Every structure is written in structure tokens, then in C-alpha cells.
Amino acid sequence: MLTVNCISVADVNVYGKINLSLESADYKTSTETDFNNNASRIGAKGKFEIKEGLNISFQIENEIDPTDGRADGDKVFKERNTFIAIEGVFGKFLTGTHDTAFKLGQLKVDLFNDTRADIKYILRGENRMNSFIGYTSPELIDGLNISINSISQSSGNGESFALNYANDKIKAALAIEQNLKGYDGQRFSIMLPLAGIDLGLLYQSSKKLSTGKSYSGHVVSLKRKVSNKGSVYFQNAASDMKIVSGSQNSIGYTYKINKSTKAFAHYSILNKEDSADDITFASIGFEYKF
Question: What is the DSSP-derived secondary structure letter of residue 75?
Fold first, then answer.
């Protein structure tokens, strides 16, 4: 008689987010108004127990664009974090497509993530890579773990590392990347409460490998609740990494309608070396999670 030991299967969850906004962009000589998709997405994830304390998990996630049905050029879907992982007391190994440890090392200092005021327009290193192998350790001491990534590229292997710490109040990360999209980088981030305000600080240094030239940049963000459902936030990001004398000052307000839905309004100024090239963005939108 042949006996087959069945793998215990946990529920597979389908999830997603719709984030859309009506945005006006003032380019000094012209103004453009359009509906924007802010990285709306759909995905599925699940976990399979091989034996007690040992699991295989997976995630399949793609960006969608409800405004025109095309998330990536002519393609309907754009791949986001999609991977398979094995997890146990030893930590977590994964392979596929994933945000680098360096990118995740910004914690959530970026309060305007996925919008036109995202720090990716100012700083290098906001990379999601394929041909990715990653490892995240269990806690080495209370609140402290490490993440290690190896990424295969046509220009050679790249690496990304992060030392992460979190307790009930403070989150901090020290991240390093080597030979990723032609750059090395170092990043330190911290988030902490300060007199009723959530304060986020990020400092980064990046070097372009082809020239040896180094650049630095920073992000400062402040968020404060003004009611049970409303919050205001401000953010300053500055660096020469992508724009000469580039800086972006942004202010926002979000109102939580219910557990899954919120509305928001943003105003942002992107400054460049020549003030005639400055761009002002104003938007209102909503987000629905399912």
C-alpha cells in the first residue's frame, strides 16, 4: 500500500488595492490635468505547511491600471513582488521578483509612496529586481534582524543588505547596496514619535560606478493626526542623484472613511536647478483595499 503524506494547505488569499487620483500638473508654460493610477494592484498569496515549523509560501502580485487598462506600456499587468519562499526557525529564503533590502530600508519614511511625490523621483535605489535570491533572518536579539539579497544582472551580480531594528516605538534600518543598476549606496533611516508627531528621517549616499562620482540626499517627513480619521503630513526630499539641485516639498491630508477606504489630497512642488523647469502638482484621490 502506498501512503501519501498530504501537505497542510492554508487559505490562499486574494487581495488588492485601487488607488486613483485626479491630478493637475503646472509646468509654468502649460497645465495638464488627468486621472492618475497610483500603483493599483491585485495579488494572491498563500502558505503550505510541509511539517511543523517548516512552510512554503508564495505571492503573485501585479500592478493594474483602471484608468486605461494598461499598467506597463501595452501590457495589462506589470509584475510586482512575485516569489516563492521557504520559512522556518532559521528565517526565510525566497526567490523571484522582489523589492531589495535597500529599498525596504527606507521603512515608511516616504509618506507619498506610489504618488508623484514618491522619493524615487529624487533618490536612487528604489529598486524591485528579478533574478532575485533573498534571505531574512529571525530576530538575532529582540527587534533586530538582517536581510541579504543577491541579484543577477547583465552587468554582473549585485547585492543588497539591511540591518533592521524595531520596537514598540522606534524603527531603524541601515542598508547597503553594491553594483545595482550601476550604483553603490548606503542608506540610514529612522522613524520615531516626537511630541505627537511621527517623524521620519533618511540619509543616503550613492556612487555612480562608471564615473566614481558620489551623491548624497535626504528625506524628512512629519505626520500628525488631527482627528480620529484625519491626518496631515509634510515631506521634504532633496538630492542631485536624479535631478541637479533637485528637491521636492509636499503636503498632504488623508481622511479614513472606513477600514478599507480613504480619501486624500496632495500638493507638491518639484524644484530643479533652473526655476523655470519647476513643476507643481495638485491632486485629490481615493484608495480602496480589498
Answer: B
> What does pTM read for this prediction?
0.94
DSSP-assigned states of every residue in 132-162 = EEEEE---SBTTEEEEEEEE--TT--EEEEE
Task: Name residues whose C-beta falls within 8 Å of residue 247's C-beta, 6 or more positions apart in sequence.
Answer: 122, 236, 237, 238, 239, 270, 271
Residue whose entry in the numeric block shows the C-alpha cell 494598461: 70
Pairing of strands 230-239, 144-151: unpaired
Cα gap 114→134, rounded to integer Å: 24
CA distance 259 to 137: 32
* Dihedrals phi, psi of 73, to nearest 5 degrees: 65, -120
**Cβ proximity of 61 and 84 under 8 Å:** no
Tens digits of residue pLDDT in 198-224: 999 999 999 999 999 999 999 999 999
Check residue 11 and report its DSSP letter: P
DSSP-assigned letter for residue 90: T
Contact 134, 229 (CB under 8 A): no
